[in-house]
Amino acid sequence: MATKSNIEWTESTWNPLTGCTKISPGCKFCYAERMAKRLKSMGQFNYRNGFELTLHEKVLQAPLTWKKPQIIFVNSMSDLFHENVPFEFIEKVFKVMGEANWHVFQLLTKRSERLIKLDKFINWPSNVWMGVSVENENYKYRIKHLQSTSAYIKFLSLEPLLGPIINVYLASIDWVIVGGESGPGARPMSKEWVVDIKNSCISSGVPFFFKQWGGVFKKKNGRILENRTWDEMPLKFDPIRFSA
Question: Residue 185 in contact with residue 178, Cβ under 8 Å?
Answer without folding.
Answer: no
